[in-house]
Write a structure and sequence with these properties.
Blueprint (H helix, E strand, L loop, with lengths): L11 E3 L10 E6 L5 E7 L5 E7 L2 E9 L1 E3 L9 E16 L7 E15 L7 E9 L2 E8 L7 E7 L2 E4 L3 E5 L13 E4 L5 E2 L3 E5 L4 E7 L7 E7 L2 E6 L8 E4 L2 E2 L2 E7 L2 H5 L3 H4 L16 E6 L1 H4 L15 H14 L3 E4 L28 H10 L3 E7 L4 H17 L4 E5 L7 E4 L10 E4 L4 H16 L3 E4 L15 E4 L19 H5 L30 H10 L4 E3 L4 H5 L2 H9 L4 E10 L3 E8 L5 E7 L4 E6 L8 E9 L13 E9 L3 E6 L4 E8 L4
Parallel strand pairs: 23-24, 23-31, 24-25, 25-26, 26-29, 29-30
Antiparallel strand pairs: 1-2, 2-3, 3-4, 4-5, 5-12, 6-11, 7-8, 8-9, 9-10, 10-21, 10-22, 11-20, 12-19, 13-14, 13-16, 15-18, 16-17, 17-22, 18-19, 27-28, 32-33, 33-34, 34-39, 35-38, 36-37, 36-39
The structure holds 1-deoxynojirimycin and calcium ion.
């Protein structure tokens, strides 16, 4: 049970005012360790504002809070603080799966009550702040009130004014390719409009990431730079004009800022998970287990096969059986098959109206395949590409999930390939068809609602969801543990479409940006290191293994075609062993955008795994095994970049293998090639 200690101290102090204006008020609280101090106040215009100091220095200069509405005077001025309450909380909860088993939820809370003046209809707004030792979160809580019953939000005006200078890593908010962009690294004062999480490293080494938690029934927050290093929220648009429409009472998502002294503190940080509601689904371990899978996929991505029926159709019964056989033989529990359903012929990047979610193509015997898979103790992983047409998908959703669950399918990958703003959502509900749609953004309120509808419907049928072209993750896996993974960034697929399309620094950037939001179905394991027309990946062979440690997901693909996996038996053996579920995870070496090496302990055995990814600069790391328990020895099986390896030439295939016994206190000098990586498995040495 959460422990709440109400009203530790009256945090409201009034200061004298010479003017006949509402009395300015200030409310403050600090993180449990006292390093982060929050001040909430109103300024001379009676604007509501918040500011932060960290380790005694100003971190966030006074930053406004409020809303503009489509149908009433703004909720930006005329505020008075009418009261505040404090509380404290400290407990630990268990994740059903994840990067770590136990999560500590330790914070101090400040709830501030605001009231607008008579000219602004005396509206009420509460803001709840939670301060953790490694970040803060706050949300607006809109109570029932006389002034209005429904809030039509034209935009939310939450500012983040970063005081110290620094560098930012970010992608553009609202652009056509959604989140599938190469990250930009710029001074903070050169950011334009960014998606979150946006990561910043300040001049004194402090690491920040601004994001949000529990994005439910609301539009996603983008960050627009106003001036200098001041950002303000701007919500993803809606076809309804008001970007968000909500009846009172309601709470907004949490606005979050991770605050850490170093890169490890940024990454090993459960701020957003802690700000989400506990598990609503109960124990799902009977139907979802972390797993590794293969699929009829890379062959389509690189153009050998097609999603459409025809002579090169990928999803045939025969090929699927071959993949099931390979999975059974090599310890994979699932086989993803895309292009299995009718309607994907011709222009699949089209309108999505032809897509059926229940009828297989004639050359794909769904029933026979699922029966064959069951015999081999392998599961078919389902696929629902929508082409961004959620109107057509929602109309078939229940039938589609029912069909799969009846056939023993417990994991479904979804897809929303359409440009930003190109989601076709149901219109007024009277008919389903192209003449009755509303166009929405992938992260607007209606699509946010759609994703939860899919996850909740899937849960009813004991199905887990892996969404591609999704809305960003905001920690909802805590509440809905069947929402197991997403894409939501440039995945492996881009490497098939152009040489070095995801450059060598892409993955070491993802670790500190996209990955802060939650698991990613990146789809590592392209052991051939090539895509369409043999274009090379910006990766060594060892980096493909390092990705399993760097980019967390409870479902991990071995994404290459099976003949390429089979051609690399040693690497395949590592992929077979590496877990997708961890007792603990630590970033033991790393720098944003440059390299990232993790040590992760298996949740189901005493084994540890170490590994990660490098950018274009070769480097030698001095890795310490201090994370191991004292007094135990481990056999380390090492996969590392071979001498002279580089992503730039055919030397990307050079890999070296090594074995040695290590214990706490030992060090390993590890060379990482340009575009390289490494992976180690540590198993306890059994005492004779
Ligand atoms: C884009 C997804 O990211 C990819 O994995 C999938 O194969 C295609 N869409 C088709 O659904
Ligand atoms: Ca994609």
């Amino acid at each position: 049970m959460p422990r709440l200690i109400p009203a530790l101290a009256a945090a409201l102090t009034f200061s004298a005012s010479l003017h006949a204006q509402p009395v300015p008020a200030t409310a403050t609280t600090a993180s449990p360790d006292g390093q982060i101090v929050l001040t909430v106040s109103t300024n001379n215009d009676q604007r509501a504002q918040w500011s932060l100091s960290y380790k005694g220095k100003l971190l966030v200069a006074p930053s406004m809070m409020g809303f503009i509405l489509t149908d009433g005077v703004n909720m930006t001025r005329g505020w008075t603080i009418t009261g505040s309450e404090t509380a404290a909380h400290d407990d630990t909860w268990e994740q059903p799966w994840g990067e770590r088993r136990y999560v500590r939820d330790h914070y101090r809370e400040l709830l501030v009550h605001f009231r607008q003046d008579k000219d602004h209809h005396e509206r009420l707004m509460n803001v709840r702040f939670r301060l953790f030792d490694n970040g803060i979160g706050f949300r607006y809580e809109m109570p029932v009130q006389a002034a209005f019953k429904t809030m039509h939000i034209a935009d939310e005006l939450t500012e983040f004014s970063i005081a110290p200078k620094g560098t930012a890593w970010w992608i553009t908010g609202g652009e056509w390719n959604r989140y599938e962009q190469v990250y930009q690294k710029t001074p903070i004062d050169a950011v334009a409009t960014a998606h979150t999480p946006i990561t910043m490293r300040l001049e004194d080494g402090t690491h920040l990431a601004i994001h949000e938690a529990a994005l439910v029934d609301y539009s996603a927050m983008w960050l627009k730079r106003e001036d200098g290093q001041t950002f303000r929220s701007t919500l993803a648009p809606s076809s309804h004009g008001a970007r968000v429409t909500r009846d009172l009472p309601f709470n907004t998502p949490w606005r979050t800022m991770r605050i850490a002294p170093d890169a490890a503190g940024l990454v090993e940080n459960d701020l957003e998970l802690n700000l989400n509601e506990p598990n609503k689904l109960g124990d799902i371990s009977g139907w979802f287990k972390p797993q590794k899978y293969i699929g009829i996929w890379w062959g389509m991505i690189k153009g050998d096969w097609t999603w459409a029926t025809g002579p090169r159709h990928g999803a045939t019964t025969e090929r699927t059986k071959q993949y099931i056989d390979f999975a059974a033989k090599n310890g994979f529990s699932g086989v993803l098959v895309e292009g299995w359903d009718k309607g994907w012929d011709g222009t699949w990047f089209g309108t999505g109206w032809d897509f059926s979610y229940t009828q297989p193509t004639p050359d794909f015997d769904l029933k026979a395949i699922t029966a064959y898979a069951a015999q081999k103790h392998v599961q078919l992983i389902g696929h629902h590409e929508t082409g961004g047409n959620i109107a057509n998908y929602e109309a078939q959703l229940d039938d589609a999930m029912k069909l799969y669950s009846g056939l023993g399918v417990h994991l479904v990958k979804t897809g929303y390939v359409a440009d930003a703003g190109g989601i076709q959502a149901p219109g007024d509900g009277s008919t389903v068809g192209p003449d009755n749609v509303r166009m929405e953004y992938h992260d607007g309120q209606r699509v946010v609602e759609h994703h939860l509808k899919v996850v909740e419907t899937a849960a009813k049928y004991h199905i887990a969801i892996d969404s591609h072209e999704p809305v960003k993750d905001t920690g909802l896996r805590r509440t809905y543990p069947n929402w197991v993974s997403r894409e939501g960034a440039r995945g492996m697929e881009y490497n098939a479409w152009g040489a070095f399309s995801n450059g060598p620094s892409h993955e070491p950037t993802l670790v500190y940006t996209r990955m802060l939001s939650g698991p990613m179905d990146f789809t590592p394991g392209i052991l051939s290191l090539e895509g369409h027309d043999h274009v090379p990946l910006a990766s060594t062979l060892a980096k493909q293994l390092g990705l399993y440690l760097a980019i967390y997901s409870p479902i991990q693909m071995a994404a290459d075609q099976i003949e390429n996996l089979a051609a690399h038996p040693k690497e395949l053996a590592f992929i077979r062993e590496v877990p997708a579920d961890w007792a603990q995870s630590h970033l033991i070496a790393g720098s944003v955008g440059e390299y990232a090496i993790f040590a992760r302990q298996d949740r189901n055995s005493p084994d540890w795994y170490v590994g990660g990814v490098n950018d274009a600069t070769a480097r030698t790391l001095d890795l310490s095994f201090d994370f191991l328990d004292a007094g135990k020895s481990y056999t380390a099986t090492i996969y590392k970049d071979g001498e002279g390896a580089t992503y730039l030439t055919d030397a990307r295939h050079r890999i070296a293998y090594d074995t040695r016994v290590v214990k706490k206190g030992d060090h390993l000098s590890l060379w990482l090639a340009p575009g390289g990586g490494a992976a180690l498995r540590l198993t306890p040495v059994l005492k004779k």
